[in-house]
């Protein structure tokens, strides 16, 4: 029985050892990373089971060993008693004569029997074997645990990281050196950094094109949604503007003066090369003004502004030039057309009802519907949503440009959604992009508003100040164009260079004469006279005549008093201002037209001045038609309402071609002066005629360029005594 128990425990111990060996080999065996991980998990489970079985077996072994020991003692005792009884019977039947002679041997036999029993109890093989087996099982358990700990040691296992090479999204790892990754049963995987989730409104991606004016001309720029890096994509020495993507996203139409007068062009974005200007194709060949193109849904037609017969109307033409259709014929200007996605409607802006509203032209019925119907608000720049149900547009209200949205099926007042201008829809219709200027007018931003889902506007990119004409397409720019960083500015020469004498010596700045003008005291500061001369020459080129040969004022003496209501601290005294001929408003037609503009939340009044192109050049080669109603100061004497308001707008937009003098002057750094607070009652404070160039200087600092502090007299601040 003892031998059988030994064999059973021996076999069980061998089984435990084999299982430990199997677990060890299985855990450290080779295989893929996934198989290794799976083995580690299952190996841990088996190791745990093995340890539990070892503990259970140790407990059972102790119990069984104790029972066997007790059983051995009992059996030995019984056998001893049986021996005594047998020996006692023999003694009773033996001769009495032998008792004496056998006394000594009986005593020896009893001592031998006790010794035999002691030997049997003390050297019980089962007990000895149980102790050895216990030691063996504990050793096997220790070996199994050591094997598990060895196999799961994190410092022993390294897995090389597979290296990928490529560009863009394919360039996962650019370092060819393998990076060790520690793995193990107890290891917690390090989370892999993931890119910030792209907002739903931006997931459509694509490209937003827009225009920027610099160095006296306008270029077309673009920014890929998500890149924040704007690029110049089309540039010429003259103006390129009014960009619009076709629905297919492979062509960009625009208006340009690159061939002299305003014509329509487009370029194929899929054409090879890094310079889109090399792939520009001309669409129109007409001396008359053409601008503001918009594509049909199939990309085969373009609708645009067209000035013919002294009227600005909407025309549609095939891009191959085979057919031209005049869509509107109203006497009022019709402009800013945009084709609907369904191809059967054209939205445009018109003055036909006396104010600037957005209209819908139905190509099937040729019916025209006033969509906005807001006499107190002037709307412009309509843009259809991709499904054709909504129109976003710009409106100037309360001195601010605002973006509004209206349903094409519900004429009336649209919903104002944000401050900004010239909106464009995202290709999927979820968002609305627009441009807004920084508060300090130092730069502009392209925003995207989640119109369908709601939420705060997101900044797509910072762009140069004054950017406009945004248009969005779901196509990225050509890689060659992006890698080249866009195209270079075509107008490489500066508009002017100021030649200032004695500027480095700290001496006072002198005055320079302005020649060929009838103004009194025809002088300007040496710091601004060159820019004035360059601007004057540019105006001659743009308008065909020297309008600035006749001016009211240039330099004022420091002691000259202004007209009633005009402050004595006048910028004419700094040599940094000039005033146009006010009488140019008179005439039939007048040489200038003045558009009233309300700027800022407080509605401060500014004026935009347009100079009429020479009458011999009114064929379209210079200037462009007006789109706004000018302000008529002469009506102030006609009724009480006009008297209180300082005049009213004209009843009709004047015909002919004009140059935006306010914009041209700004190109050379000359700014307009806001009207005085009393301009409605005091004609001397209208200030539409006055332009100045402060270049960041205060009036006092500008005066100290040409006068000493002693000559300034009472114009300088009174010194305030300070305590020592």
Overview of the molecule:
The protein has 724 residues and is an alpha+beta fold. The protein has three domains: 2-89 and 104-151, no CATH class; 200-483, Neuraminidase, CATH 2.120.10.30; 511-715, no CATH class. Helices cover 25% and strands 26% of the residues. The chain has a four-stranded antiparallel sheet with strand order 3-2-1-24, with no helix packed on it. A four-stranded antiparallel sheet has the order 4-5-6-7, with no helix packed on it. It has a four-stranded antiparallel sheet with strand order 8-9-10-11, with no helix packed on it. Helix 1 packs antiparallel against helix 2 (33-93), helix 2 (33-93) packs antiparallel against helix 4 (103-122) and helix 2 (33-93) runs antiparallel to helix 5. The longest helix is centred in the N-terminal third of the chain and has 61 residues, at 33-93. The protein is globular. The N and C termini lie far apart (117 Å).
Summarize the structure.
This protein has 724 residues and is of the alpha+beta class. It is 25% helix and 26% strand.
Structural class: alpha+beta
Q: Mean pLDDT, nearest integer?
A: 81
What do we call the CATH homologous superfamily of the largest domain? TolB, C-terminal domain
Oligomer: single chain
Strand line-up of the largest beta sheet: 3-2-1-24
List low-confidence stretches. 1-10, 20-37, 79-123, 154-190
CATH structural class of the largest domain: Mainly Beta
- CATH topology assignment of the largest domain: Neuraminidase
As for the number of domains, it is: 3
The fraction of residues assigned to DSSP E strands is 25-35%
Radius of gyration: 49 Å
